[in-house]
Amino acid sequence: MIHTNFTPGPSQLYFTVSDHARQAFKEGIPSISHRSKQFEQISKETTDGLRQLLSIPDNFYIFFTSSATEVWERIIQNLVAEKSFHLINGSFSKRFHEIAIQLNKKAEKLEAKEGEGFTGEISVQDNTELIAVTHNETSTGVVLPIEFINQFKEKNKQALVVVDVVSSMPYPQFDFSKIDSVFFSVQKGFGLPAGLGVWIVNQHCIEKAEALLKKGISIGSYHNIPTLVANAAKNQTPETPNVLGIYLLNKIIQDFLRKGIDTIRRETDYKAAILYHALEQHALLSPFVKDKNAQSKTVIVADCQNHTEKLTKFLLEKGLQPGDGYGSSKKTQLRFANFPAHSKEQYELLVDSLAAFQG
Amino acid sequence: MIHTNFTPGPSQLYFTVSDHARQAFKEGIPSISHRSKQFEQISKETTDGLRQLLSIPDNFYIFFTSSATEVWERIIQNLVAEKSFHLINGSFSKRFHEIAIQLNKKAEKLEAKEGEGFTGEISVQDNTELIAVTHNETSTGVVLPIEFINQFKEKNKQALVVVDVVSSMPYPQFDFSKIDSVFFSVQKGFGLPAGLGVWIVNQHCIEKAEALLKKGISIGSYHNIPTLVANAAKNQTPETPNVLGIYLLNKIIQDFLRKGIDTIRRETDYKAAILYHALEQHALLSPFVKDKNAQSKTVIVADCQNHTEKLTKFLLEKGLQPGDGYGSSKKTQLRFANFPAHSKEQYELLVDSLAAFQG
């Protein structure tokens, strides 16, 4: 019997989700019209709550999409006429770059070594329209420091800075004056069922999409930025959305607000600290990411080498489900999500279990 | 208190859905990985079940999308280099045409008068690559006879015939040798929460998408047909999908299979017959669609003129929620969904209530 799922998404559900879902069915939420006042109210509460939770300024719009994968495509479609630049530090940032290629853009890239991030000043070509950064690489557990991300805006005024925060939100606090867009999906840090993405953009993104449209470049249809803006202004969506998903997101945001974002962040720090410490002390295991500045707080990757299979079995027997290593690291690494759904007690049990593992 | 929601989507939930959802949470379904054997099994059962329910031949692929609105865009992206042709008989077929324009295609159209469908032979230009037909117009309650749709394939061998069945499935039985693609969303005839679309394509669609790609035309990224095919072959999806939605769709399909598609169709016919009869007999109301061949069985529109508001109130008092007329017909029409979730008893109560309405 699995008690705690440490897979980094879909991950452990936040402990209130199933009760909220039961309540949703009781209230008939899955049957309400997405053009009703009731839906508009739910939608407004969700975006207001998110704005409060993450200190998102008023000049940013919040859109609902079907997934973060969709947002990759919408960003390239809406914000790039010709040229994007991608910092690649794992499989997901790589996929974002590939999507730009698939949409026939000139997509430049800078790749970090596996398990490493970036440091120092990065020079970007003058004609770059978009700088794409993955804050937290779910595949490798590499995080980019926020100060590193903040360097781009000032030096590249012509470019929009977009940040993939899929597996880090709600942990990081961004300086929204230094970025133009962030996006995530709800099945990771928000502990919800998959099937909903959130895309946050500022006025510069809206202007860019409108400029492309004016030039006759197709920016997509129902989910292009102007259509999303027009609908968001009414607290609606262009299509019939995942209404139940939005309802549940609202409920979890309210739960997070009651708990307090500071508490959530402090607990995340604590849990990350004890897990990294356990890995560093362990005779057979170690953190995959060596540079402390690049060690993610929200997706922690353990280098387990030929102990991987045995450790997985050992943890499963205790009801702890580790995430497999990503791709080619499946047989040598394990990943541990550290989301608000993972309690301090569950992390303490995980750490004690790792300490007890003798190979 | 609403007992029955006749709005044509999101509509009345099928009566088993909330129990299935409770079971899903109990089994931890919202936490499972979309790359797991367990997900592949759910996905396979869903597509196998749908194939059986709707007699979909083996040479058709079944994909999961986020909505039918998304499918409109994917169809144009993947299946049209330059020119599509749209039969427009209401607001949704009109929107499909507009999406083709937004994606910079030469989209031709033929428009029916409001509340009317099409009859006879339709001539299509030789260089048309796609013929888009909306089987059942959710806005007007106009259905196109299947024999009408079947005319296109034979006479236009160069073109793909795609059919929007958003508000008619699972009622109609198509001749899949006469069409290349159909699509729907689950919050209508399948009585499920919104947030999932189903797109069904044959080999000709796959070949067309591959041909566009070879020409250097972008066909999108994660949801282009080749990527969907490669993932569907493994019973997976390119992105993290609405796993809970797919699980619930599978459960409802199994429920429909147990009930039997013939019974579902027969009950649909019965319910439509008694409602149209009641409207025809009524002193103050009438069917909006006059031509019997164009009268939808699954979305029945009542012309209520200045009785609309009063009738709505009258029905709501009996716990019956009618759907508003669409767009500019909001003040003069009411729409009644006739989906498998609407029981014979509920329809009989609706019909008796209409008969009792004296204005």
UniProtKB/TrEMBL annotation, chains A, B:
<keyword id="KW-0028">Amino-acid biosynthesis</keyword>
<keyword id="KW-0808">Transferase</keyword>
<dbReference type="InterPro" id="IPR000192">
    <property type="entry name" value="Aminotrans_V_dom"/>
</dbReference>
<feature type="domain" description="Aminotransferase class V">
    <location>
        <begin position="5"/>
        <end position="319"/>
    </location>
</feature>
<dbReference type="InterPro" id="IPR015421">
    <property type="entry name" value="PyrdxlP-dep_Trfase_major"/>
</dbReference>
<dbReference type="InterPro" id="IPR022278">
    <property type="entry name" value="Pser_aminoTfrase"/>
</dbReference>
<dbReference type="GO" id="GO:0008483">
    <property type="term" value="F:transaminase activity"/>
</dbReference>
<comment type="similarity">
    <text>Belongs to the class-V pyridoxal-phosphate-dependent aminotransferase family. SerC subfamily.</text>
</comment>
<keyword id="KW-0663">Pyridoxal phosphate</keyword>
<dbReference type="InterPro" id="IPR015422">
    <property type="entry name" value="PyrdxlP-dep_Trfase_small"/>
</dbReference>
<keyword id="KW-0664">Pyridoxine biosynthesis</keyword>
<keyword id="KW-0963">Cytoplasm</keyword>
<comment type="pathway">
    <text>Amino-acid biosynthesis; L-serine biosynthesis; L-serine from 3-phospho-D-glycerate: step 2/3.</text>
</comment>
<keyword id="KW-0718">Serine biosynthesis</keyword>
<dbReference type="Pfam" id="PF00266">
    <property type="entry name" value="Aminotran_5"/>
</dbReference>
<dbReference type="InterPro" id="IPR015424">
    <property type="entry name" value="PyrdxlP-dep_Trfase"/>
</dbReference>
<protein>
    <recommendedName>
        <fullName>phosphoserine transaminase</fullName>
        <ecNumber>2.6.1.52</ecNumber>
    </recommendedName>
</protein>
<keyword id="KW-0032">Aminotransferase</keyword>
